[in-house]
Amino acid sequence: GAGVSQSPSNKVTEKGKDVELRCDPISGHTALYWYRQSLGQGLEFLIYFQGNSAPDKSGLPSDRFSAERTGGSVSTLTIQRTQQEDSAVYLCASSFTGASLAFFGPGTRLTVL
Amino acid sequence: QQQVKQSPQSLIVQKGGISIINCAYENTAFDYFPWYQQFPGKGPALLIAIRPDVSEKKEGRFTISFNKSAKQFSLHIMDSQPGDSATYFCAAEALQGAQKLVFGQGTRLTINP
């Protein structure tokens, strides 16, 4: 596909379970971002990958959150021991350079029961 | 700390009217100010952006007005159409700093036919 894709589109899980969210960026884009969008709120930065550089993890809300990017392409956001406050839409974006020029995926809606 | 404040939270405008959304920022290191449009079930898409060296930028029916001294910027949608109904986010980025966007809380715009 030509755009950023994310899977699953929806995920319902029970409190305490681990979840993995996947992002397939646009081919050739070196920068990849994860954001979280809570109901009625703006987008909250989580983590940023740029090429082979160490990721900027400054937005991760707790050590239950982690992300990796394999081969400079696909990224996985993992949330361990999910809590109800983790319920949100998780958005991935990619770009050649510059956060503001990034293209966003449709997001994964996570619901923690 | 909320670095970009957006208002109003929701806005209803009649078809053909002018929609105005306002944002204010605190960090003077910000030097790029994009606006995003988000439709339900989709990720945000870049709509229009401005740098602080100009006071206004216009693209079709969309105009950004920028007041550097007041640290405020606004989006004006002229001749608003029902298809403009969406959630709009302002954002700010420090191009020389960390590669991440700081978003406002969003405005849900409804254009009545």
Question: What do these coordinates show?
Answer:
The complex is a heterodimer of chains A (113) and B (113). Chain A is mainly β. In chain A, 0% of the residues lie in helices and 47% in strands. In chain A, strands 2, 4, 5, 8, 9 and 10 form a six-stranded mixed beta sheet that branches. In chain A, strands 1-3-7-6 form a four-stranded antiparallel beta sheet, with no helix packed on it. Chain B is an all-beta fold. Chain B is globular, with a radius of gyration of 13 Å. In chain B, β6 and β7 form a beta hairpin. In chain B, 0% of the residues lie in helices and 52% in strands. Chain B starts with a strand and ends with a strand.
What topology does this entry show?
The complex is a heterodimer of chains A (113) and B (113).
Chain A: E1 5-7, E2 10-13, E3 19-24, E4 31-37, E5 43-50, E6 65-69, E7 75-79, E8 88-95, E9 103-104, E10 108-112
Parallel strand pairs in A: 2-10
Antiparallel strand pairs in A: 1-3, 3-7, 4-5, 4-8, 6-7, 8-9, 8-10
Chain B: E1 4-7, E2 10-14, E3 19-25, E4 33-38, E5 45-50, E6 56-59, E7 62-67, E8 72-77, E9 86-92, E10 102-103, E11 107-112
Parallel strand pairs in B: 2-11
Antiparallel strand pairs in B: 1-3, 3-8, 4-5, 4-9, 6-7, 7-8, 9-10, 9-11
